[in-house]
């Protein structure tokens, strides 16, 4: 037993005496103003952006709203129905409404967004959204089947998100 303690203490002592090796960690900093991110925004039937340089993209992620700049940490974010804003190199901003999808931030300053459905925000009428939301809420309050109410709940969530996005126009 004493021999084991002696070996254990000599191993521990040797570990303490060893000079630590330098561990180099990658440093992350803030994106420079000149840094761009290559955006690919794709719908099933159309590519809205095809690896174009942009300054920033703001998305409605399932975990909350977030802005993506160059040098962003790689991640995959599920998208919820909501606003997607693209700030282009010229300083102009384009807003889209997407119904859901995924955003993938790649380590090489590239961002791929695959959206199920999407359209420019200006294509939507606030009055039509209010009318459709009221119709869906009547279905929710009515005597419909569980399936009809579940479908109406999903529609209501999308209309509420769209109504919010139109309020930020």
What this model shows, in words?
By secondary structure, the protein is α+β, with helices and mostly antiparallel strands. The chain has helices at residues 2-17, 126-141, 146-167, and strands spanning 37-43, 46-61, 64-68, 75-79, 82-88, 93-98, 101-106, 110-115, 118-120. Strands 1, 2, 3, 4, 5, 6, 7, 8 and 9 form a 9-stranded mixed beta sheet that branches. Strand 1 (37-43) and strand 2 (46-61) form a beta hairpin.
End-to-end C-alpha gap = 76 Å
Task: Give the helix/strand class.
Answer: alpha+beta
Oligomer class: single chain
Q: Considering DSSP H and I runs of 4 or more, what fraction of the residues is helical?
A: 25-40%
Number of strands: 9
Low-confidence stretches: 7-20, 23-30
Determine the number of helices (DSSP H or I, runs of at least 4 residues). Answer: 3
Shape annotation:
elongated
Order of helices and strands: HEEEEEEEEEHH
Mean pLDDT comes to: 83
Largest sheet features = 9 strands, mixed
Q: What is the percentage of strand-forming residues?
A: 35-45%
Question: In angstroms, what is the radius of gyration?
Answer: 25 Å
Give a concise summary.
The chain has 169 residues and is an alpha+beta fold.
